TrEMBL record:
Residues 10-179 form the Pre-mRNA-splicing factor Syf1-like N-terminal HAT-repeats domain. One of its GO terms (cellular component) is U2-type catalytic step 2 spliceosome. GO terms for biological process: generation of catalytic spliceosome for first transesterification step. This is Pre-mRNA-splicing factor SYF1. The keyword Repeat applies. It comes from Perkinsus olseni. Belongs to the crooked-neck family. Residues 183-291 form the Pre-mRNA-splicing factor SYF1 central HAT repeats domain. It is found in: Nucleus. It holds the Pfam family HAT_Syf1_CNRKL1_N. Keywords: mRNA processing, mRNA splicing, Nucleus, Repeat, Spliceosome. Its main location: nucleus. Coiled coil: none annotated.
Length: 291
């Protein structure tokens, strides 16, 4: 049954708006006054009536002022409050999502609207939709605002069970803007047991003379991490020549020679190539100069 909204109408304000439909000041006053009247109501049905009336009031205001950030933002907050206690699969949440989609069409250069849109979709666990909106936001916003979008993208990857393919795609796009965060991607790949991709990226970092670790790691430490990774997870490594990597490290770091020879031999043991492992041990005994 339809809700009786007559108790919500302010006749005087309606007359004012008929005379000045494009006045943002009048619309805002009417919205705020109606909100206060709603908050004073104790009856649940009457509160629902005021909520519906407020939504209609915002829609009317936005027809007159389609690019008014203040009204759009207030409307979205109102819609969010209406569905705050509902299940994320409730159809009412779809209506909120539709409002966000309309808002960003009108206010595509406003980062806060995009942020709240992404957060709404993330709360609803809509990973694919969130990814699409993230890319839409990046296309719409100036590059100086992209960090705000990427912060939410990284949060989504950390907190939701994002498929590795989606997470990797987002991370690779992120690194185009923030290449210094490559170690974060390596850590993500390790957590997802994507050893081949992690090793490939880490090898790129150790060979980049301009790379500076945000975690304060030296090139020496990164090399040893790479060697540990490729020898420990040898069967998973396809894109990196493990033998060449470890031998290169042996030539660079004399203080780790014994450890690295052992790791290389263990790598061949993992592959079931015991003859090659024996050859590595023999070569190590002939060439090692440190204990």
């Amino acid at each position: 049954p339809s809700v009786d909204l007559s108790a919500c109408v302010d006749v005087e304000m309606e007359e004012e708006l008929r005379r000045s439909p494009g006045s943002m000041r009048l619309w805002w006053y009417y919205i705020q006054a109606t909100t206060k009247r709603m908050e004073m109501r104790q009856n649940a049905d009457l509160k629902d009536a005021f909520m519906e009336f407020l939504c209609q009031l915002h829609e009317r205001a936005l027809r007159e002022l389609p690019r008014c950030y203040k009204i759009w933002h207030n409307y979205l907050k109102l819609r969010e409050s209406w569905v705050a206690d509902l299940c994320v699969t409730d159809p009412a949440c779809d209506e909120v999502e539709g409002c966000y989609a309309r808002a960003v069409c009108m206010l595509g250069k406003m980062p806060r609207i995009w942020e709240e849109y992404i957060e709404h979709l993330t709360r609803r666990l809509k990973i694919t939709a969130t990814r699409h909106v993230i890319y839409e936001a990046l296309r719409s916003l100036p590059i100086t605002q992209h960090y705000r979008v990427w912060a939410l993208a990284m949060k989504m990857i950390r907190e939701l069970n994002v498929p590795v393919r989606t997470g990797g795609e987002l991370f690779r796009s992120y690194l185009m803007l923030e290449p210094a965060h490559a170690e974060t991607y390596v850590a993500y790949l390790e957590g997802e047991e994507q050893w081949d991709e992690a090793a490939r990226l880490l090898m790129k970092l150790v060979n980049d003379p301009d790379f500076v670790s945000m975690e304060g790691k030296s090139n020496h430490q990164l090399w040893l991490e790479l060697c540990d990774m490729v020898t420990t997870h040898g069967p998973s490594i396809k894109s990196v020549d493990v033998d060449a990597v470890v031998r290169s490290a042996i030539g660079k770091f004399s203080d780790q020679t014994g450890r690295l020879w052992n790791s290389l031999a263990d790598y061949y043991v993992q592959l079931g190539n015991f003859g090659k492992a024996r050859d590595v041990y023999e070569e190590a005994l002939e060439s090692i100069s440190t204990v």
